[in-house]
Every structure is written in structure tokens, then in C-alpha cells.
Amino acid sequence: MTSRFTELVVDCHDPERLADFWCAVLDFQVLERGEGKVEICSWVPTAEQVRARQMPPTVVFIQVSEGKTAKNRLHLDVSPIDRGTEAEVTRLLGLGATRVDVGQGPDRSWVVMADPEGNEFDVLRTLAPSGA
């Protein structure tokens, strides 16, 4: 018997704000809201689908009292699908992301950013068709 990767959980101060941000970044939707918790997804999972094969995990934002104190040991990478990397970085800045320096150096093919609560993520190369 095996397990499935079903959720990625992010501790935060404001689950609603981060869920809104990440829904806009990823074109996800809210699956469930509860006391101090918001779960977002790209699809509505059923137990049967998850048992049959690995499906994309949901992202769950859980409210905690403590703040972020160091660079994340786990982060998300995103790839724009309908525009260039710099155009996507500009869009994400407009949504509330910031550029951050985590010691990545000047010679890199990705852009390190942080969400509104400081959680780092990378914007990788574009997957948009040529000319987009």
C-alpha cells in the first residue's frame, strides 16, 4: 500500500489573503473555507480519483500566530504559460509579490520572489508558445 501527496500546507497569518493571492497566481479556486483555514485547488478531487492515481495536490493555508523567521526550506516554482517570464514577474508584482534576494547570485535563469507574507517562490522559464 502507498500514500498519495494530497495537500501542501502553508502556515500563515492571513489565510484568506494568501489564498486570494495564490488563486490569482495559479488560476486556482477555493475548495473549502473553515476557521483559520482556506484550501485551494486546480480541480475538485474525489477520493476515487486520488486512489486511482497521483493527482495535483491542493494547497491549504492555515492560520498560525508565529511569524516567518528564516528562508523557507521548501518553496514553489511556477512557470508562465501564456507570457514571458518578465511579463509574468510584472503581473505577480501587481498582485502583491516582491522580488527577494536569498543569495541566488546574478547568473540565474529564474526570478526569486516572495508572496505577501514573505514565502519565497521562483518564477522559472516561460512555457508560452514562441511569440507569446
Features:
132 residues, alpha/beta, Signal recognition particle alu RNA binding heterodimer, srp9/1, 2 domains, 4-stranded mixed beta sheet, globular
Question: How would you describe this structure to a colleague?
Answer:
With 132 residues, the protein is α/β, with parallel strands linked by helices. Helices cover 22% and strands 27% of the residues. The chain contains three helices and eight strands, in the order βαββαββαβββ. The chain has helices spanning 15-26, 47-52, 85-95; strands at residues 7-12, 29-34, 37-41, 58-63, 76-78, 98-99, 111-114, 120-123. The strands form two sheets. The protein has a four-stranded mixed β-sheet with strand order 1-4-3-2, with helices on one face. Strand 7 and strand 8 (120-123) form a beta hairpin. The radius of gyration is 16 Å and the shape is globular. The termini are far apart. The model has no long low-confidence stretch (mean pLDDT 91).
